[in-house]
Predict the structure.
Amino acid sequence: MKRFVLLSLALLALPLFAESEYPKMGPDIYDTRADGTAQIATALERATAGQKNVLLMFGANWCIWCHRLHATFASNAAVAKALSENFELVLIDVNTRNHVNRNEDVDARYGHPTKLGLPVLVVLGSDGKQLTTQDSGELESGSAHDPKKILSFLARWMAPKP
């Protein structure tokens, strides 16, 4: 029985050690198996409870600019703080691979924001209403995203606090 439990735990942990979808890009930032609709529903529940808006970041694991924006979100203290205090961040994988268009229904629901390129940002109110779509290229400066531009964007779209 003990061997069975250990074997079961080992099998359950295998996906945690799965190779990246695009190994040369580093670790995946998008969950390739995630259902975007379910991700958004969960984020909306949290946003309502926390009086926040939802920030959708559409992208793919092959996208260098997606990795760069994600890195800025995580590594810049001011950006990370503004995000955590005011938004529920959802990473929506919209890669097309093996003739499967991941989360194409979510892309369609928000007016095909991916036509602007990747990554692209969509802000939702806690009621699920789409507030804006942002071409992330406008948040770039040189070969990176500009934290000041990101903070300005976030400030415009954070939920009003009571």
User: Anything to note?
Assistant: Helices lie at 2-13, 36-50, 64-75, 77-86, 104-109, 147-157. Confidence is low (pLDDT under 50) at residues 4-16.
